[in-house]
Specification:
Strand content: 15-25%
Distance between the termini: 138 Å
Structural class: alpha+beta
Shape: elongated
Length: about 800
Amino acid sequence: MVLVIVTIALSILLLSETLKITKLISKDYAELYTNEIVSDINAHLNREIGLTLKAANTDDILAWIKNESDSGRKQQAFSEIVQFNSILQDDNLFIAINSSKNFYFVENSKDYSKFNPSGILSPTMAEDEWYFRAIASEEPYMLNIDTDRFLNTLRAWINVKIVSEGKVQGVLGTGLYLDPFIRDIFEKRQSKGVKSVIVNEFGAIQMDSNIENIQQNSFDPISGNGGTIFEFFAQDQWQSQIQAYLKTGKAPLVLELQKERYNYVALAPIENTNWYVVTFFDANTLFKASNLFPFISITAIIFIILGIIINMLVQRVFIRPFEQINLSIQEEGSIVDRQIFGQDRNDEFGVLAKTIQLMKNRLDGYNRNLESEVESRSAALEAAYQTITVNEARLNRLFKNIPVGIFMLDSNYQFCYGNPNFLRQFGCDSEDMFKSRYYKNYQRLFVNPKDYDVMMNALKEDPEVLTMELHLKSEVEGSFWADVRFTKTSEQGENWRYEGILINIQGKKDYEIELMDLATIDRLTGIHNRHFFDNLIEDEMHRSAHYDEALSLMIFDLDRFKNVNDTWGHDVGDEVLREVAKVVNASMRKSDVFARWGGEEFIVLLPHTSKKGAAVLAEKIRHSLENTQHPLAGKVTASFGVSEYIKDEPFVDWFKRVDEALFKAKDSGRNCVVSSDSPKCISPTFIKLIWKREFDSGNKTIDEEHKQLFELANSLMDYFLEPDSFALEMHQFDLMTAHVLDHFDNEENILSNNSYPELEAHKKLHKVLIDKLSKKREKFFNGELKALDIFTFLVDEVLVDHLLKEDMKYFPYLNSELKDDI
């Protein structure tokens, strides 16, 4: 009976422990399924999100969004959009502009003529609600499920806000087909008793193996349970708890469900999105209690039968013989008879005594064998300890020599360990040096100290894993970019909180910059190449035509350059080309575009510059090249052709005109400048301003000051034609500015004494010119303008528009008796 009770108790205990283990395993399985799906979703989304974020911050796209009607910016933005669209997974980039609410859609198309608005977004239209939700969101991007209006298929949309100057300019995004998600993520993980879905912050199903369950455009709390995860629950208590989690949940969550179809539900956020992965798990998938009932029944029957057999054997072999011995003792009164306990008896007790003695002898032998085994095992443990010591030494060498920085942070986020590679990144020889240099002042590790605050805020959210790309600096090596990964530790009793890995990716960053330079920079001379110029010229022509601004082109070719290569070799020829680029660059403004056209031929694009200004600049460059002596090749001259852009003229025609001018310069003896409308070389003397008698006002003071202004302008241009003359140009410009201010004061006094009726209007013109002079001086000082720009301003606005037009209006009002008075 006792044996039966023990058997039943053991069976119940086995069942109970099995159920406990099943629960723990089921909980872990639910969490594992969820984490795997989060990883898979991130693998599908991270690349597309990264590309879309990069596209949303492209300068050309931002410039067009701010001025949507600018066709030049639009075409340049379209080129960027097509480029990004071609590398996106599903080729369906779209962009919505906030100012106009225009919606543009690009799907595997490179036809600019078809790049027009597909519609206008309206806050009253339900299908446009995604846009107004996206721009109002505090997150940089938002995900939603919607039907592709062109292909009528469901897609997962990535909506990235375009933000510039603190304002939302629009939304840029792309859509991903759901089939790969359902096929690669859900279907391969669905099994009996396991169900996984992706929901948004309102619980609406966004992805499911059953596409009919997917809710589109779910931007508000949903009434009812249809199309939500709440249809999987029979009790309302879970709905409120999960709704609260979906609003604020940042870490994975596992709930044990009572009286529900599934035993566990695991939830985990998809990082930086408004989506969550939810997995329902039925513990019966792993184990059912009813499965143990046959086993327990059979085990109980076996134990009962064994109990009966054992009981019979004990009665026969032990209990009855001992009763007979006891009875014999009582009858004979021989309680102290040593023979009773001795081994000289031939009955069962004697056999038992002999057997006990034999067992003792055997136990002694076993004890000796055990001692020997203990000694053997102790030796093995000592050998194992030695192996562990060796492996620990190897591990320490690995940590010291691994080409990756490894570090640890304690529970207060303070540095507590760093391997040699980590310390070398910051120019430290030891952990003590690192701690003494940066302890409680870790902002010094960052190029931008605000990045430290961003990193700390992210760590204080207590993530399991955090990966960041940081711009760091070293006291010795300077700045560098690094990929840093923090992993939260779970060991009990340890005094650190995060283990970290730091990988220096500066080489990767440099390589990216090098690739960009290779695409736009001529490797020999370091200036722009023809590819860069070809991509730029059409936009500059559109800008010139749109804003009615002058735009000129200069082409120059080195004279008899083949002789240099034939005489001195191509190495010397290459050095001459580099020196030419250096000399020409010294005369360029920031807005000028200087490129190598091919071989020894160069091209210069001059925005805001007339043909006359271009000719002056060409003459200065020609003069500088003529006065440059190369160590071996000597003097190398150049011939120049210049031409001004005519509105709506194709580039090929414009280039032909300037190329013909260059040919005329070559044909005219080389080493000269020819304009497209002049058959002869241009002499630098043409820029001199000459005073004529018809400019006389009759007032001696005014006329002398006007003549002096002509002389100052000519002197400025003389300095401009000399190399390295910035200081002289600046001094001359200051003299000219002071002269203009004094002249305007004197002129206004004379006109006041002569009662000039338009005096106030004339004063306003003076003020406008003074303001322009002040701004041009600042730009000239900062290198944004050349003396040529100042000279053009003097000729066009001060001398022609003002002196020869506005000033002549007051000539009749000057009284003869006051003409020589100030």
